[in-house]
Amino acid sequence: MSRRAGMAAGVSGVVTALTLLAPATSAAVAPSPTPVLIEAYGDSTTLGITCADGHCGPQARNAVTGLQQALQAHDGERVQVMNYGVGGTMAAQLRDGTGNRRAGPTAGLPWRERLTASPARIVLINYGINEVMQNQTPAQFYAAETTLVQIARELGKEPVLQTSNPMPDKRLNAKLAEMVAMTRRVAAEQRVPLVDQYAYVSSLPDWKALMSDGAHPKPELYRLKAEQDYRVVEPLVRRLLDDTP
């Protein structure tokens, strides 16, 4: 064999070897899994306020953190839950972009603009207590929650409504029950998932002992609320995970 023919054969052999290796190399690089982001919006019971010894403040063992821990234990770390709860706020403020303060990088934007900029696949919505405390009417609350749900759906998000936990004061709790009825109505009319925390907590024996004050649960009750959230949210997460690479 001539020197030139030998060189050609050698180059051809190298090209063939690289061609054979290329598919194996490409197959070994798997695409990054698509995350499933959940955003939780609500008042101080979403934020995770607990009161003790005359002091109230957010604490780590809240319902949103508990939900993320349960989801990640079952579905992996590609599931993330962001807590955008803000104390003292109402559903109408979330809709209008007022009262959001430091709740996320898009705080202060109206709901439509905020969700347009959000990569969230699922949004949790939990209001009612401050509507009672700030003398909102059930009709106003109904209108605000309906708008929140409709916009979320228009933007391709999966909204999940949550009723508030009950309040120990009988008079305030009776008013809260009217707000809860509105949340249930919106969920039924818009056909969205509902976590009925009001009904669940009210059914617990001596549930008032699980409250740290007139509105905020103790960590033990936040844990129980997280379990109820998980029952409703996990099937939605599983469906999204099954539909994404």
UniProtKB/TrEMBL annotation:
Tell me which positions the record assigns to the signal sequence. Answer: 1-27
GO MF assignments: hydrolase activity, acting on ester bonds
InterPro entries from the xrefs? Ester_Hydrolysis_Enzymes (IPR051532), SGNH_hydro (IPR013830), SGNH_hydro_sf (IPR036514)
Q: Which domain of life is it from?
A: Bacteria
Question: Domain SGNH hydrolase-type esterase spans what residues?
Answer: 40-224
Write out the entry's keywords from A to Z.
Signal
CDD domains, per database record: SGNH_hydrolase (cd00229)
* Entries under PANTHER family matching the protein: THIOESTERASE 1/PROTEASE 1/LYSOPHOSPHOLIPASE L1 (PTHR30383)
What is the recorded name of this protein? G-D-S-L family lipolytic protein
Provide the species name. Answer: Paraburkholderia monticola
